[in-house]
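Person: I keep going back and forth on a fold encoding question. Show me how you would write down a chain together with its backbone fold. Please set it down just below, with no commentary around it:
Helper:
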Amino acid sequence: MESKNIKISIIGAGAMGGSLVRGLVYSGYAPGLITVSNPSSERLIPLQDLGVNTTDDNLSAIKGADLVVIAVKPWIMPQVAEQLASSVEEGQQVAAIVAGIPGSDLLSMWNNIDNLSIVMPNTAMSLAKSMTFIVDIAGESGYAKDIFSCVGRVMNIEERQLGAATALASCGIAYAMRYVRAASEGGVELGFPASKAQSIVTGTMEGAVALLSQHGAHAETEIDKVTTPGGLTIKGLNAMEQAGFSASVIAGLRASNRW
């Protein structure tokens, strides 16, 4: 089945569920193939405007779906699993966007169903720019890989790597934003209005990402290209390192590597 024909049901319309819906529609996915369920209509109303199907009934939402995505808080997962596990149809695949629940526990909650995966995207899904990780718990996550490929990059990893992946990509969105904020504040100190400073920083980041997206590119090589001996860039880099730039980034990643 082609990814554009997969019928998807999303349980939960919070930050992750809502971002997935918006990203799919943004990428050109047919809204009529998407059903979203949420107990609060307040979160469903904006999604209705996108043309997707909405309901407050989880059981009806999953009927006939090829892929069921569970996008709820970890402490709500047992309740949702208890409600839905016995109603999962033969051939349906279930993907859980959930942190901190071991795969074995998740599989037990879902009555050892034949096809279950853990999916860890980030909120850049809404613009089809997520970095998403998939762990196969039972069976192969073919539909999940197809669907999440519509909203960004996808990488299959082992469960033991989930903590590190979450730190780098999910928490990493916040870390990248913190750099943008810090650099923008520096731009204001250097004389630019705040809006222009942020525009300069984000434009520069776009260029850096484009350079690193080339085959065989490496960050240190690109740094060397703009680091003249005795020049301004090396002075700035050394000042940042003396203030603990790299050490702080690594310490933050280690602190958020909890699974």
Q: What stands out?
A: The mean pLDDT is 94. The radius of gyration is 21 Å. Residues 188 and 194 are 6 Å apart (CA to CA). The first helix runs from residue 15 to 26.
